[in-house]
Amino acid sequence: MKRWGVVFFVLLIQNQGILKPVEAEDGFVKTRGLQLVLNGIPYYANGFNAYWLMYVATDPSQRDKISSAFQEATKHGLSIARTWAFSDGGYRPLQSSPGSYNEQTFQGLDFAISEAKKHGIKLILSLVNNYENFGGRKQYVDWARSQGQSIKSEDDFYTNSVVKDFYRNHIKTVLTRTNSLTGVAYKDEPTIMAWELMNEPRCTSDPSGKTIQAWITEMASYLKSIDGNHLLEVGLEGFYGASKQQTNPKYFQVGTDFIANNQIPGIDFATVHSYPDQWLSGSSYEDQVSFLNNWVNDHIQDAQNILKKPILFAEFGRSLKESGYTTNQRDQIFTTVYSAIYSSARGGGAAVGGLFWQLLAEGMDSFQDGYGIVLSESSSTVGLISEESQRLIKIRKMYARLRNIEKWKRAREIRRAQWWSGNKVNDTGN
């Protein structure tokens, strides 16, 4: 990997003006060692979170927002979107009760997938929420409780057999869904890059991590038995277990273990979320940046040296809602994450990209949580996103160029062999 890193660094310096286009993006994303791979070429890409895609697309009159968001994302070099493939109970549910699905909402997800396909954007689809928003674990255990199950807490989501049956059925229903617009089953759709078991799983009743470890093992095996095409990740924030808990923000022992959880068979790449403004809310901005720098680099090194798997920074950002928070501060947070990713990627390391939270389209002020970014609105952050994404695209182009060189060399060797073979035949007079 180090040898390739040196080659890419030289090529990036010398050949930025003669880069060839990256190949078509219509294949399944796979893994190869520390890298994601698309059509045989290492796949490095930045992207965004847009949890609202299905929710908004459920209303056909609002679907132009999805199209606009994808168009702007593509224009700014973003090619991965992470979104929810769940909405359990409540308003506009996907799953109104266990095993009962709303066709109109499913068609909203169909549209989001088909539109992503048109714009060359790969999707990460999360299958349930840790939190009450859009139902989540609480809704699942409430459903089980209403059927007579003895439920002590939301953490029973991970152990109660009835709840686990509900969740397995959701996995099967989503994966085997045939898109009403494309006619392709989700499990056969290359636009989907990966499945995510849960958005930010936590189990505070068992800080040892054993409960979540067993649940991930079981559900990863089940999902892979249905779908062998797609990658799978857990949805972890990156908090460590007892062996390295000093790396976590103070008091953050939430029943997950970045190392053990990602070593489970069936988990193809690791994820990390980064919110120093939330996790260290009482600390100075300088301390938050320092923490973030260590947090990002520790996880890259552990993914590379221990897990030996790719790592995606699946959520990061900084809210501008708090008094005194500035765009420059947000830019420094973005730069810290993006720079670490690029430094790793150009050397053939484990970091493959970053997805900021969150992308909004114009006219979505009601979705603004302080983190939202509208790419069509000019700002230093938008310029930074575009610049950093283009840097990763150049690495992909370098890999594509090198592969073309290797193909040319092999073809030349074959032609030479054929030429010598033909001349030898002529020399013998035959």
TrEMBL record:
* Reactions catalysed, as given in the entry: Random hydrolysis of (1->4)-beta-D-mannosidic linkages in mannans, galactomannans and glucomannans
The GO annotation for biological process reads: polysaccharide catabolic process
**Which residue ranges does the record assign to the Glycoside hydrolase family domain?**
28-358
Q: Name one Pfam family in it.
A: GH5_mannosidase
Tell me a Gene Ontology molecular-function term this record carries: mannan endo-1,4-beta-mannosidase activity
Keyword list, A-Z: Glycosidase, Hydrolase, Secreted, Signal
Signal peptide residues are 1-24
Family that this chain belongs to:
Belongs to the glycosyl hydrolase 5 (cellulase A) family.
Protein's UniProt name: mannan endo-1,4-beta-mannosidase
